[in-house]
Amino acid sequence: MKTHAQAVVIGGGVIGCSILYHLTKLGWSDVVLVERNELTSGSTWHAAANIHGLHDSANISRLQHYTMKLYNELEAETGQSCGVFQPGSLYLAQTGNREHQLRLQAAKARLYGMNFHEIGRDEAERLHPLVNFDGIRCIMYEPDGGNVDPSGVTNAYAVGARQRGAEIHRFTPVTATVQQPDGSWIVETPKGNIRTPWVINAAGLWAREVAGLAGIELPLQPTEHQYFVTETIAEIAAMDRRLPSVADRDGEYYLRQEGKGLLIGAYERDMRFWAEEGTPLDFAHDLFPDDLERIEENIMRAIDRVPVVGTAGIKRVINGPMIWSPDSNVILGPVPELRGYFCCNGIIPGFSQSAGMGLMVAEWLINGEMKYDMFAWDIARFGLWANNREFVKAKVRDQYAHRFSIHFPNEERAAGRPLRTRPVYEMQKNMGAVFGLNYGWEHPLWFADAPGIVDTNGFTRQNWWGPVGEECRMLRDRAGIIDISNFAKYRCKGPGAEDWLNAVFANRMPRAVGQSCLTPLIGVRGGIAGDATVTRLAEDEFWVVSSGMAERYHKRFFDAVPLPEGTTFESLTEAVCGFNVAGPQSREMLQRLTNAALGSDDFPFMRSQRIELGGVDCVALRVSFTGDLGWELHCAVEDQARLYTALLEAGKDVGAGPVGSRALMSLRIEKGYGSWSREYSPEYWPQEAGLAGLCKMDKAFLNKPALQEVITQEPRERLVILHLDEADVTASNADATGGEPVFKNGVGVGRVSSGAYGYSVGMSLALGYVRGAAPGDAVEVMVLGRPHRARVLHEAPFDPQGARLRA
User: Where is the FAD dependent oxidoreductase domain (predicted)?
Assistant: First the structure.
């Protein structure tokens, strides 16, 4: 066994072997994989191993298509069969919402050149004569869908990695991972120790235990999962071809051919946790006792759809473990608090994603960043708060039981909540607030007429659409109070504060006390890793306000630049709360609560002051994400309730009241403001997002060399504002929400990044990235997967010159 390696992968399932293979494929040959038992032990060996390409996320779809394509190439490269069967997959819609989902996925497939399209019932019956298509509204066909052999795929990755120089050691459990003073790691095993700069935890069912060796806790929970295989079915045995799989997600089961019979699996509502206190170390190629009664309802729906299932005998039952994250997405990426420790855990559709996942890990380790924005998979989307065991179990129960349910735009699920609340939570709840979850915090989405009202969900306009409009109009006409406590807040203090912030951010830091600036944070490949408002509160003190959901993600960037001696950088997000008071009457409203002068000359735009407001000490910033006259007011958490009460009372005199985050979404889109993880991400260059002017290339800053390589290039696409045709929007009763493809003259030219109805301008709007479409051009936005006429606007429809903002 080697004593040194560029990386050590822990775990010999399909994901660990894919990571090892892709590391070697991208040029790292000095890599090692260690597995406690035999390759495929754990969840890999008993997986149903279905493969499909389409996902609600375009980037995940890209990675799944890469995975499906690679399997045949892997067979040719290694000589190891992957057992690939690709007879296609049929996707069935029984409901209007499922039809919307499938049509939207078909539009995305058209944009990205993927093979997924609608077929008629006659064609579907020819492809799969055993299916009863009664009651089906829409049928989509994916010709490349199918399944693979779990052991064959895993061993093909292993063979390919070995051929490029990697070592694999089976029956080699890891007994310790010890970080060294220089940041490297010693991976201890009974067969010897390996020193490495990178430990990659791909331990599957044992991810929690392996993480624990490094002092890490991961929000993961295993469950049982069952499927069964029938005896030979005469109708299948008589066929000279393989039947396509059936994705009847409204029926909450999956079905495909296995041998001359059928394989049927289900995600039942009456689910079972397993190994709540830890995965047994002696578990390997083991299964649980059969318990088909739990999935009986799902089976009956499968029989209704494919009647031969009801007459077939059962050949074998597989009841094995899977391990889940709270949102059923993978937990991937370097642990922000530990140098050189990478996680890739909690994978559910492993055989649809294995190659894409391995590629992303290899790109991150070798290049420092992935080519796609995969924050949906990033471990940093969960803070340490997510390790609450009851929260994890509640979320996993919900994810498992609703595995095939549609995840609607703007949907909020109640499982495991509330987890983190601030002092005004009960007050807001009693005012009718309907809450969402943001990085573990409860925050008001909108305010209903009475407490206890909850969201309805769907692709069309829902019960909150009208009340959100009232909030928007109230703020634009008078004033509104928005809880912005979710924003991430930091303080940088000390003699080197200005120099350090200049070394991190692309813009030049404010030089005068009381000044603020907007600044991008540049990613490893020159894209936009973040955006922030930086304010100089004193000669040696700055405040930084940025995206709350990205706080742990941004820690990687902040830690990349050493702090000067005597200078500190700390998060204030938990200690400080905030409100944005905005609207034409906001100055009059706030002036009732303070002796500080708030006039435009005394307190101009992009300035800050420490003021007392309603008896509460606040840091007041003259900025507003609404694009209107307004202030951000930040106070100590213990003063939040007192400040909120004072603001609400003062608001009564001018007709102002509480406003939720859904209204803020509409207001900032009217103004054309981008938002992190939507318009701003590492995939987009500053000149594409309209932020190039904030990048000061005459100073040094984090990842400047990468930006220098791309900043002078012509934008690949540009961020634009789209106005959707009112007649089309009214007919569908739906606005764009994000992800919808954009076409021009039948050719895909981009996609929506954010969408909402602009209540104060009377327009259905969308922000999106397009190429080959200029202001004034007509395009089509695929809302609900159907074309909605739209036009590229020349400027933001609300206050394009910023007169209100600077009033």
Answer: 7-364
Residue 725 sits at φ, ψ, to 5 deg, of -60, 130
504 near 542, Cβ under 8 Å? no
Looking at residues 517-529, what average pLDDT do you find?
98
Contact 546, 557 (CB under 8 A): no
* C-alpha dihedral, 104 to 105 to 109 to 115, nearest 10°: -130
Q: For the whole model, what pTM was predicted?
A: 0.97
Whether 164 and 102 map to the same domain: the answer is: yes
User: Residue 778 is part of a domain; what is its CATH number?
Assistant: 2.40.30.110
State phi, psi for 491 to the nearest 5 degrees: -125, 130
* In the block, residue with structure tokens 């985050």: 661
Same domain, yes or no, for 691 and 789?
A: no
The whole-number average pLDDT for the span 732-747 is: 98
């984090």: which residue's tokens?
702
Task: Give the pLDDT confidence of 596-611 residue by residue, as tens digits.
Answer: 999 999 999 999 999 9
393, two tokens? 């179990």
Q: Calculate ∠ Cα 745-750-756, nearest 5°.
A: 105
Q: Are residues 704 and 752 in the same domain?
A: no
| C-beta separation of 81 from 149 below 8 A | yes
307: DSSP letter? G
Calculate mean pLDDT across residues 740-744.
98
Nearest one of 543, 517, 519 to 529, comparing CA atoms: 519
Helices (H), 128-260: 150-163, 207-213, 234-237
Between CA 116 and CA 173 the distance in angstroms is 43
CATH number of the domain bearing residue 209: 3.30.9.10
How would you classify residue 21: left for phi > 0, otherwise alpha for psi between -120 and 50, otherwise beta? alpha
Distance of alpha carbon 250 from alpha carbon 89, whole angstroms: 15
pLDDT score for 54: 85
Find, among 20, 10, 678, the residue nearest to 357 by Cα. Answer: 20
Asked if 446 and 662 touch (Cβ cutoff 8 Å), the reply is: yes
Dist. CA 243–CA 129, nearest whole Å: 9
* Euclidean distance between the first and the last CA atom of the chain, given in angstroms as a whole number: 70
Q: Are residues 707 and 767 in the same domain?
A: no
**Strand duo 763-770 + 718-724: pairing:** antiparallel
Sequence letter at residue 181: P
CB 682 within 8 A of CB 676: no
Distance CA 358, CA 383 (A): 24
Q: Compute the distance between CA of residue 392 and CA of residue 415 in angstroms, rounded to an integer.
A: 9
Quick one: which H or E segment has residue 301?
A: helix 296-305
Are residues 791 and 709 both part of a single domain?
no
In a domain? residue 188 = yes
Residue 56 has pLDDT above 90, yes or no: no
Domain count of the fold of the chain: 3
DSSP element (H, E) containing 581: strand 576-582
Maximum pairwise Cα distance, the chain: 88
Distance CA 463, CA 468 (A): 9
Which of 538-542's residues contact partners 24+ apart within 8 Å by CB, and which partners? Answer: 538/513, 539/513, 540/493, 540/494, 540/495, 540/497, 541/491, 541/492, 541/493, 541/497, 542/491, 542/492, 542/493, 542/497, 542/498, 542/501, 542/509, 542/510
Which tokens sit at 668?
A: 């900032």
Residue 434 belongs to a domain: no
207 and 127 co-located in one domain:
yes
Helix (H, G, I), strand (E, B) or coil at 20: helix
Last residue of a domain, one of 658, 693, 713: 713
Mean pLDDT throughout 552-566?
98
Residue 321 has pLDDT above 90, yes or no: yes
Structure-block tokens of residue 575:
């200690």
| Structural domain includes residue 239 | yes
Residue 601 is assigned to a structural domain of this protein:
no
For the beta carbon of residue 181, count every other beta carbon within 10 angstroms: 5
Average pLDDT (502-529) is 98
Nearest residue to 490 via CA among 586, 444, 436, 557:
557
Q: How far apart are CA 220 and CA 211, in angstroms?
A: 11
**Residue 772 sits in which domain range?**
717-806
